[in-house]
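From the shared-data thread, chain only:
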Amino acid sequence: MTNFALTIWAWQLTHEATALALVGLFFMAPSILMSPLAGALVDRWNRKLAMMLSDIAAGLGTLIIFILLVSSRLEMWHLYPIFAFAGLFQSFQFPAYSAAVSTMVPKQQYARTSGMLSLAQNASGILGPIAAGVALNIVNTEGILLFDMISLIIAIGALLVVKIPQPEVIEAKNVKKNSLIKDSVFGFKYVFARPGLLGLQLTFFVTNFIGNLCYPLLTPMVLARTSNNSLILGSVQSAFGVGGVAGGLALSATGGTKRKVHGIVIGLTVSSLGTAALGLGREPLTWIAAAFIMMVFNPLINGSNQAIWQSKVPPEMQGRIFSTRLLIATMSAPIAMAITGPLADRLLIPGMMPEGWLTPSFSWLVGIGPGAGISLLFIFMGLLGLFVGSAGYMSKQVRNVEDILPDYDSAC
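Structure, as tokens:
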């Protein structure tokens, strides 16, 4: 709800795609740069506390925005350092909870567990955007930020009562501890020594670049093509949540494909088609259907990938290695976010206006107007995603990674 409300606030203030993309850039860049050090610290710290630290930092950022907003002092530039601060601590979240899951369930249930996590994450995405669209007219953005801070208290309370065991191996083996710098570099050495795992993450590197190049522009595209209708935007964003929940339920029930790498390839193929369909659509029902189709396979992609890594990497190393894995997969995001705003504002949007240079070639495909240029980007990025998924599967090391690398508990 908060992300939705702040996105609407920023769009109404600036009417520039660049401003929205910069918020994402300031959030992602510190998170990515901090991730190797964060992973080393997660393997040393209590993992529950690491997750709690990330949540509290996000709550402090929301509190600052709330205070600035109610005092009528909030400006667009304020969001950049606040989101950078939250992103810095967000780097602890993924390695901490991923490593925690590995100690809480048997490896045969890793994919199902990822499906349950995806279900939990996407469930809030169903009602959140629609509720925010309605709440904006009742309690305004200030009210939504207040709800956010209340939800933080509930989330930390839930985390406090959950038992998360620490890997016993840490106590037994780490008699002589490496320096923090050596632990931060360890993940890179581990991943680069295993071409199959590296190939998987390079595939995600490119697909994340594609996603971060076009999805920050989804809000401008929908708003531009619907005369700033926030309820339609909320419905489209809720469709992503419904698809994610449906996909999470399916993965939780079935455990995904027998060979996890097949789940990644199938998911990337269908998800890429959904991205292209978002660009082809010119009305809400098409966008809603495309959003659902795209997200229903997202849990299969991420759950299959997560299951491979959790089964191959020893739990006591997962903080460091999963942080490196996250860095490789997402370091393309800041580049994409830095490019996407100017690309839309200066090239694609004017290019698909009535007298634009792209109009003669593509008006038949996406129409004409402010949102048409962004629609064109979605189509081309969807097609590129199809190619990337197929290319990754062509690599023998990636295709057979589950056979080439032994599971961590059978390596000896």
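The radius of gyration is 21 Å.
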